[in-house]
Every structure is written in C-alpha cells, then in structure tokens.
Amino acid sequence: MILNIDMAGDTPIYTQIRNQIVFGIANGQLLAGEHLPTVRQLAGDIGVNPMTVNKAYSLLKEEGFILMDRRHGAQINTIPLLTKPLGQEFDQRAALLIAEARIKGVSKRDVKERMLLLVDNIFQQKEEEQ
Amino acid sequence: MIFFLIAVAWLVFGTFLGSLLLFQNDQLNQVLGVTFSTKHAQHAEVKDVINSFKKACYLVFWMFVLASLLMLLPAIEELAEFVMLLLVMGNMAINGYAIGHHQRKLRRLKERNDWIYPTSSFVSVDLMVTKEQGKASISPVWVWLLFGLGFIPMIVLVLFPNKNYPLFLSVIGPICQLPTVFLYYQSGRRGIMVAKGSTQWNLMIAQNNERINSIAATLSALVLWLFSMWFNAIIWFALKEYYFVGAVIVLIAGLLVISFWQQRQTRKILETAMEEMEEEIMQEKETTWKWGCYHNPYDSRLFVPKRLPSMGWTINIAHPLGKAIFFGTMALATVMIGFIIYSGTKDYEVTIHSSEVVFDAAMYDYTINKNEVASISMIEVLPKGRRTSGFGGFSKSYGHFSLDGYGNGRLYVYNKVKQYVVVSLKGDRPSYIIVNGKSAEETQELHRELQDWFGK
User: Fold this and answer.
1) For B127, which of A37, A44, A48 is closest by C-beta distance?
2) How far apart are CA B343 and CA A124, in angstroms?
3) Angle B280-B285-B286 from CA coordinates, rounded to 5°
4) Which pairing describes strands B432-435 and B407-414: parallel, antiparallel, or unpaired?
5) How many beta carbons lie within 10 A of that of residue B344, not counting itself?
6) How many beta carbons lie within 10 A of that of residue B363, not counting itself?
7) Within 10 A of B122 (CB to CB), how many other CB atoms are there?
8) Chain B CA closest to residue A2
9) Cα–Cα distance between B446 and B3 in angstroms, integer?
10) Which residues pair with B305 in a beta bridge?
11) d(CA B189, CA B197)
12) Which of A120, B154, B206, B224, by CA, is between 20 and 30 Å from B93?
C-alpha cells in the first residue's frame, strides 16, 4: 500500500497517515494481522519526526484499527472493533459532511449519488482484494 | 618545495576535472543538475550542451595547469603558497561558473521546448518497502570494524611512543573514519521514487539501491582506512611530502572509482525498472537546491548525492544537523584561509627590551628572559628536522620544530636566507630559538643586537 502525504497541505501529517491507513484497511489493501512499518522506519521514509507517526499510530490504536505490541510493533487488528460502527459518531460525521455540502449549494440528488459512489468504491475494492 | 606545491595544485585541478567528467549524461533524471526525462535527455540539443560543458572543463583544466607554472617565476616564487591558494579557489570558481552557465543553457532549452515536468509537495511511501528497510544492506560490522581499526596507530603509539609522532595526530584516522559510519546508516534511506501499484518494482529498486549504497559506504570506509594507515606511516617514519601526495592521489582515485561504480549500478537498476514500467516516474527537482546546496525540508536524509552525482555526497542544509555542519564548515574554511593569508603575509618582529626579547609571529609569539638564555651563535646550515606545529610555507617556516641534534625548539626563519641566529636556552621546551632576518645583512644585524643585549 502506498501512502501519499501532502507535506504542504492544511491537513496535519499524522491525520493524513491515520486516514490513509484506515482507507487501506477498508479497501482491503491492508489485511487483518498485517504488520505496519515501525514508527522510526516510516518517519524516516516520509521525512518527519517519529513523534508524528507515533501520534498517528496512537490514534489508530485508540480507535481499535491497529494493535501495538512492544515485540511485534504495529499490526492491523484482527478482532472486530468494539465500538458500535454505525453509532452516534458515524451519524454526526456523515451528517456534518452532508450539511457542509448543502450549504455550498449541492443538491440532495448529487449528494446521494456521490455517497453511493464512494460506498461502492470502498466495498468494491475490498471485494476485489478478497 | 615549489614542485610540491605545483603537484598539489595539479592534483586539485585533476580531481575537479575527473569529478566533472565522470558525471553521467542522465543520472536519476538529472543532466548537470537540471531535471530531464529519459527521452528529453537524449535530445541532440541537450547532448550539444553537455559536449560544450566537457570542452569548457578541459579548457579550464589546461588553463590552470599552465597558470600554475607561473609559480616557477622568481618574482612569484616567494608568494607561491598564496598563488596556489588563489589558483585553487579560481579553479573552483571558474568550474562553478561553467556548471552554472551550462545549467542556465539547459533551463532555457527546457523553456523553449516546453518540457515541463510535474512538481509536487507529495511524498509517496510504499509501506511494504518501508517495512523491509535495512534488510538488503551488507552488515554494518565492516564499517564499525574499520572504525575500530582506525585506532591501531593510537594503540601502537601508547605502547611504543615515537618522538616524530604527537599522540593527538593519531585521532585523525578515527575522526575521518566516522563519517563513513554515518554514510553507511544513511545508505538505508532511499530516494523518494515510488511507482503506484508496483510494490514489486519499488521493493526491487529500493533493496538494490540499499545494497549498492551500503557496499559503496563500506568500500569508502576501507579506502579511508588504507589512506589513514598510509598517512600514519608517513608521520611515523618521517617520510617526505611526496608520499603524502601519493596517498591523497590513491584516496581520491579510490573514492571516485567507488562513486562511479555506485552510479553505474544505480542507473542499471533504474533502467531495468523503467523498461518494465508503463510511465516514467519523475518530478521537477529544481526547487531542492539553495545557495548551490541541497535544501529539502521534506527529505529526512542528512547526506544526499550531489547535483552532479559523480562529485560525491553533500549535506541537506534544510536538516538541522546539516545546517550546523554547513555553517561549521564554512566558518572553519574561512578561519583556515584567513590563517594562511595572515600567517604568510605577516613578517616576524623581534623586539628587544631590557630584560626580555619578544619574537612576534602570527599565533606563535614567544618571549624569553635574559636569564633563560645559555648562548647566542650563528649557523649557516639549518639542521634537518620536522615541524611539529606551525607554518611551513615556501618563503617562511615558523612555529614548533624538532631538529636533529637540537631537539625541540622554535623557528622564525625566512627560508631563502641561509644564515641563522641560534638562541640556545637553558630549558628543553624549547631548548633553542632559531631566527633570521629577511636578508643576510638583517640577520647579521639581529645577531649583533641580540649579543649586545645578552652581554649587557
């Protein structure tokens, strides 16, 4: 899996790392049980402070996407996430995106179409990988 | 002495010429440090610029070789070391101008032909490649072993002290060896070339690069170790300067050959990979250079290949440690050049006071009291010996010396004047001071004045 980090972008680098790993898990590019590079290795290759990568990994661990182990490093979590996936947080984040789109003048139909397209993209990629 | 200076100057000019000509026409999409795609790099107009650059390099080399012969002129002879310094700096400046001039030509060529390449602030990292980092390098044991072996002269010196060889000089070997250890660990850091959807190729390129770079770093460590041993032997056995020139030639040639091999291997791998890939992965790299140095805050590497990779490695001045090394080196070079100019131009002054005499020279002042003096005499042949620290130019030699039959003492002499006043002292550090004037008459006058002072 390839991470593309925009060093000049507004999104913090740790958020970009976290988001792209989540996408990688969702679309099947990162499989359950797969090991991630060590904090130092990844920080070295991207060219950032190890603390940045550590922050991204800590976030992923807190959210249950990865497991951290002193001996084996970081690996994709094989156990289903404990938090309710379609709970209040999901609704809030999705609703916020839809609200922002509406304010910017996007029609209801366009929003629906785009959401479906994104859902299809992620589920389809995962199925292809499997 | 004059031939030694000329030989050193030729060595420097030859090194620059060799480094400039060893560059590859298309190395990692860089032609003379300007970004070109593989296809555009083969364009006839690009080739013309390269040929013009090669001719300029030869012209500069021969011009400076001829100019260095000016040092043989009696009028210039006395200023030989400054002339050599000026020629070396001039050679660097004109070569730099030739590079800049041809780079501007290449950039104009790109603009004229609309050869625009993507620029991006994106860094792409293949997680599979990152995970495998360090696994393809050859063992670090070798560079550490060579670093350890660098201490051999120090150990030998502690066990068998040698009057020719001050202990502090034996630290130079390990100090020179240490950067190769850094270079080895930096060799694991690969360039930022990642092809989308080709993990297999990314891994192949990265691992081969890692292997080649680590071998090059280890071989460089070996060459430096051999140089350090040779250098130590020169000091230990008090061999002539020509042996040192030989050692430097072997060192430079060795490092150039390693650099050339490293580039050729890297290019081969890239060419193989490029043949298999559908599109060329490249980015405009013009923005990563600042004040003629590599400046890329998005690149964590401290050591990077130079814009002309055959010229070796340089530092990333956007890296905090890189900044420190850059400014430290600049400061050191400025101080050293300043010291050479000041030392070479400042005349000695011998000031006689009622109870003491002050010998004034750049950084090597010394004052003696009348009660320290054993005798004052004159000699016409300076005994053989060696400088332990001080200045040894074409026209002047001063500082701490160890002379046969005299032991440790201080010299303040103009080399051309073959008369010397020897002030023998009662102690043994120093046990004498040898001084003369700018002419035989001045030396005799100085001898009289010192004897009068001593006799009073």
Assistant:
1) A37
2) 77
3) 140
4) parallel
5) 19
6) 13
7) 17
8) B126
9) 32
10) B313
11) 21
12) B224
Is residue B126 within 8 A of residue B365, CB to CB? The reply is no
Show residues of chain A in contact with B300, CB under 8 Å: 43-48
B319 touches chain A (CB under 8 A): no
What are φ and ψ of residue B362, in 5° steps? -55, 115
CA angle, corner B205, sides to B203 and B208, nearest 5?
A: 100
Contact partners, residue B232, CB within 8 Å, separation at least 6:
B153, B165, B170, B173
Q: Which residue of A has its CA nearest to B132?
A: A37
DSSP character at residue B71: G
CA atoms of B76 and B83, how far apart (whole Å)? 8
Structure tokens belonging to residue B373: 């003096």
Please give the model's pTM, rounded to 2 decimal places.
0.64
> For residue A79, how many C-alpha atoms fall within 13 Å in the half-sphere facing its CB?
8
Chain A residue at shortest CA distance from B126? A2
CA distance B94 to B96: 5
For residues B205 and B270, the answer to whether their CB atoms sit within 8 Å is yes
Q: Which two tokens stand for residue B400?
A: 């701490």
Check B123 against A7: CB less than 8 A apart.
yes
Block residue for tokens 């930096």: B186
Which residues in chain A have their CB less than 8 angstroms from residue B301's CB? 47
Residues of chain B with pLDDT under 70: 1, 22-28, 78, 120, 163-164, 187-197, 241, 274-283, 285-289, 292, 298-301, 305-313, 429, 456
Is the CB of residue B272 less than 8 Å away from at least one CB of chain A?
no
User: Is the CB of residue A35 less than 8 Å away from at least one CB of chain B?
Assistant: yes
DSSP class of residue A34 equals P
Interface confidence, given as ipTM, is: 0.77
Six token digits for residue B244: 């040192």
- Could you tell me if B387 and B400 are in contact, meaning their C-beta atoms sit under 8 angstroms apart? yes
CA atoms within 13 A on the CB side of B445: 7
The answer to whether A85 touches A47, Cβ cutoff 8 Å, is no
Residue range B124-180, pLDDT digits in tens: 888 888 888 778 788 889 999 999 999 998 898 888 887 667 777 788 888 888 888
- Is B135 within 8 Å of chain A by CB? no
Would you state the torsion angle of the CA atoms of residues A83, A88, A94, A96, taken in this order, to the nearest 10 degrees?
Answer: -140
For residue B150, which of B222, B236, B219, B213 has the smallest C-alpha distance?
B222
Contact A44 B123 (CB under 8 A): no
